[in-house]
Amino acid sequence: MLDHGRRFLTPLLLVLGLLTIAPAAVTAAPTAASRQPLSMWFWGAPPDHQMTMKRVLVDGFNASQDTYALQVEFRNSVDSDIQVALAANQGPDIVYGSGPAFVAPYAASSKLVSMDAYSQKYGWKDRILDPIYQSGTVGGKLYALPNSLNTLGIFYNKAVLRKYGSDVPKTIEDLEATMDKVKADGLYPSVTGNKGWRPVNENYASIFLTHMAGPQTVYGALTGKVPWTSPEIQAAVEKSADWYQKGYLGGSDYVNLNFADSMQLLADGKSPFFIGPTLAFQFATDFFNKDKGNVDDLGYTSFPTIGTGLASPLYTLGTTASLSINANSSNQDGAAQVIDYMMSQMFLENMTATWPGYWGVPLKSIDIDPSKYEGLSREYVIAISDMIKGVNGGNFGYFTATFFPPATQQEFINIDTVWEGTSSASDFLTRVDQTFKVELEKNMVPPIPAPKL
Length: 453
Fold this sequence. Notes:
Blueprint: H1 5-16, E1 24-26, E2 36-43, H2 47-64, E3 68-75, H3 78-87, E4 94-97, H4 100-108, H5 116-122, H6 124-127, H7 130-135, E5 137-138, E6 141-142, E7 145-146, E8 149-150, E9 152-157, H8 158-163, H9 172-184, H10 201-213, H11 215-222, H12 231-245, H13 259-267, E10 273-277, H14 281-284, E11 298-302, E12 315-319, E13 322-325, H15 332-342, H16 345-352, H17 375-392, E14 396-398, H18 400-403, H19 406-413, H20 416-419, H21 425-441
Parallel strand pairs: 2-3, 12-14
Antiparallel strand pairs: 1-3, 4-13, 5-6, 7-13, 8-12, 9-10, 9-11
């Protein structure tokens, strides 16, 4: 389910210093003693986002019924805490995880509950985007649903583009021409970086696999029908290396920047572009807002396809996190009711109003008027609405963190060995191919939805 959006968010929060916030439980208003407690652990979000979650999820759910009392506990070490707790047959009722690679082994070891009966009861299969629903299944049974969609695209500073007489890029040639223009003037061609969290590398592996190798080729590789050493995939890896070497990925500061640094530079007009995941909208709110008077300067657009024969626009399909039910929960029905509460347009709307970027509920359709929102929330609603339409049309590729088995995903995190010239693209992909074959034989590849063919 997840692209490992949250997994790289936590190290970024370390950089921001947010982990000085002591873990604290968010509790609902006093409830009748007869209410049954429900627990969920979440990552150590900043205080304003914690308040949004308390108001919209905790208070909202508790007010919607009189059987359960939900509590959310914010834990900076949620990943390791969940793993330790599940291994000991303990932990929260609602299991917040990092997607298929996380879910599959726990499902296989009976630590999570099959949610098929709840899916039938609440109509989840009819409500959730098909590729996303499939990705949460193990052995044909549903074990997880994601909290949000996540894709990769281009954030841009409208004021910088106006200054250089550039339009929002529609083609790769437009994008590269603008980056070359600003680079010659001493600006960053784009800003991004993997400081504190090397898996940021896989964002750019995923972009070039989707937009250059193409969804059909990558689908063939993920289903074992196309070798990872194919010419199309090798060309995409080489293109990513060309970008890195030209300074298009944060220039020489790629290893010295994180997402917060990058958004600050974008807001300061030091670059026209930040290329990254839609979940980065939540970082942008600190730098593009009403108080700074620049909230309308930030725009977002899809990444262009490269070459001919590919649909446009394409969306690299990923998610930020997964929601499952603990097999040792004494209130599994209540946990399912919470998850159902979150799988709604109402929840998407209410969370996104003050927390854009992290709550694009993966519904098959949404009917939201962007004009109801201001600033970045409006931009995020537009981005998610466009993505849903694209995915429904089959025009999607695969985020490595969501759809690749764990060891293969790690190999793609190592794509910087090609960027830095310590490995050839050919040798790199030979290792990927060997690693993937082992995982494929062990049935470790999550269900792979077919793109438009």
